[in-house]
Amino acid sequence: MPKTDEELVKATLEGDPHAFEEIVERYQRLVFSIIYHYVGGRDLVEDLAQEVFLKVFRSLATFDMRGPLKSWVSRITANTCLDELRKLRRQKVYTFTDLSGDDESRIEDFFEQFTSKGLLTENDVSDLFVLLEKLLGRLNDKDKMAFVLREMEGLSYADVAQAMKMTEVAVRIRISRSKKKLQTDLEEILLSGKRVDNN
After folding, report:
1. Is 198 inside any structural domain?
2. Is pLDDT larger for residue 55 or for residue 86?
């Protein structure tokens, strides 16, 4: 029977190297995906993921067992991404040519409302990915992170709140604001034919 997160944390702190390997294996997809969605470029993902797990290992003794490990790892990942963006001094988003099937499905589901309104056809989907890439770049860092964690990674509002060290109400406001901005911008583009400016 698989060990619980709490058991793996305790075993790691007691010196079991295999326990931390299990933690990495359990959460590496989440960490890679957050970094990929938020910062971009495959060349950065592996380096930042290694940095995240190094921080997780070094800080494990401070982990509060009363909270979920998933949220804690997400918070460290989010902070690492924000630090990286500050270093780069500009926002970057991943390229949609590298999307997995699951990523495409999540984006298509999110924008299904536009299809149902007759604003999109199937032929518009590939163009939509390019638009979404640029529209995400218009969000501020924290709004974008909340959106990525909730809408693209599927974390609960409570988990996002813990990951970002803010109240659940604040998270809901950020995500609602992000959705509204994305929807407004996308509708404007679809109805007017305007191009999205990268700046």
Report:
1. no
2. 55
